[in-house]
Amino acid sequence: MSWASPCAIYGLLRVTRYLRWCDRHKRAPAGALAISGGAVRVAVFVDSGYLYAQGSAAISGSSQKRSGVSIDAKEVISALKRLALEKADGAKLLRIYWYDGALGGQRPTAEQALLAELDDVKLRLGFVNSNGQQKGVDSLIVTDMIELARLQSISDAVLVSGDEDVRIGVQIAQNFGIRVHLVGIFPSRGSQSIQLIHEADTTTELNQNDVSRFMTIRAPVQLAAGQSPQPPASANSSSEYHLALLKDIVVKFVEALEKSELVNIEAYWRTERGVPSEHDKKLLPMCREMLGQDLDSGQKKFLRSQFQILVRRRLTKEAE
């Protein structure tokens, strides 16, 4: 007999209390669409942590750090829409729910900002703890799936996940008459809970070719010995040389950005300011290692300013 994890049990208790409150006050859960007689619609639930980890393993042979993986947001959403309409023949798409962890509080990453802007996509954020682990996502998936199933807002659910903790949500949604289509990434048997696979109504496996259409592995930015700039002739102090080193690092970093990453940053700047956290967290350690010391506030300000100038320059060039 298999038992749900403490996280799944806690998530179920939250869902139960919420649904009881809705019944008592005769209200529909937030974000749900109640349609008399049910709806022939399909919703997609994407655990991005699973997508990144297993997707990178499928195309590179081993799971890569999130910072080393890039996705084409528009392409992955298009692929998920096609898959959803194939699995739920005759249904219309309600929306795609994209679940991820928020880095640095509630500010989205550049990639998340672009996803949130896309049609038919709802970004749902948990959080990332001090160990870099995504938390709170499974309970969000379970809650949303049960709410939509209970109100008959959907007839089918496409779930991209491998976590045992979402199985309880699948079971309850099915009890409301919803068919659940589980999507895994090769090899599914090694990346998804066997109990979750058995629970699903249908299963689909994405292969390396499927994933490579929307995901790439970033080439690391390396500054080999001898590539560092020489101190400028006009330099009167080591601080000027340090700024020259920082600029050289930023130039190489921006040159290495994928086109999809530039699009993400452009979307981020429509609502936020500064350097997206995922890029800031990579640039600072690189510069610290090159200088052999922590950066002071002036150096950090210079670094971030150069990043924004160079990215805008690339965006202008790409648009020509």
Short account of what is shown:
It contains 13 helices and nine strands. By secondary structure, the chain is of the alpha/beta class.
* Total DSSP helices: 13
Secondary-structure element series: HEHEHEHEEHEHEHHEHEHHHH
Could you name the ranges where pLDDT drops below 50 across 5 or more consecutive residues?
Answer: 29-36
- SS-derived structural category: alpha/beta
Name the shape in a single word. Answer: elongated
Return the average pLDDT rounded to an integer: 84
Structure characterization notes:
- This protein has 320 residues and is of the alpha/beta class.
- 50% of the residues lie in helices and 16% in strands.
- The chain has helices spanning 6-24, 48-60, 73-87, 110-117, 137-150, 167-175, 188-191, 194-199, 208-212, 238-255, 259-268, 277-291, 297-319; strands spanning 41-47, 69-71, 92-102, 121-128, 134-135, 156-160, 179-185, 202-206, 215-217.
- A seven-stranded mixed beta sheet has the order 5-4-3-1-6-7-8, with helices on both faces.
- Strand 4 (121-128) and strand 5 form a beta hairpin.
- It is elongated and about 70 Å long.
- Mean pLDDT is 84; it is low at 29-36.
